[in-house]
Sequence to fold (199 residues):
Amino acid sequence: MIISAKFLSSLPKFDENFSALHTEIAFLGRSNVGKSSLINALCHQKQLAKSSSTPGKTQLINFFEVIFKQHDERIIVNFIDLPGFGYARVSKSLKEIWNKNLDEFLKLRNSIKLFIHLIDSRHTDLELDESVDAYLQSFLRADQKVLKVFTKSDKLNQSQKARLKNAYKNAVLVSSYKKDGLQNLEELILKKSLGVNGE
Fold:
């Protein structure tokens, strides 16, 4: 389980001088999918990752040091909260700069071992999410993995959850509000980023 977490730093773009001391896990998805809420819920803090009331407003890459306790062993990783895709009400030129900076960061940050692609469980067939998935697969290295996590599962009834699980094999459903699925997600993060068995 996660026993502590703290904010490390924010970057506007890739910086080769900002070295990674630990394995990194990047959280990404469209704006308003619940990235900050999920990171806060996982880390048992309310204000660790700051969420904006304006979707797409936050455009910095935020780093957090997270400590897991597993079989009396402390495991340190970094969580990376990435800017949300879409929605940002800014000029086209500024959005192009953001996209370029994010593209460089994701492709050059070799310490990222796991990309957690967050998808709103109520809207699973959006073209934007399909584009994000195809984009990640286009440069994924052999030592990197992608995990699809469906947020806001508390908004679904049982039949809707069953249909989602049927459509997406090994679907991970979470609710930051009701804390559903968080322990399973913690175990998957360790397993897929470090090969650590959560059992």
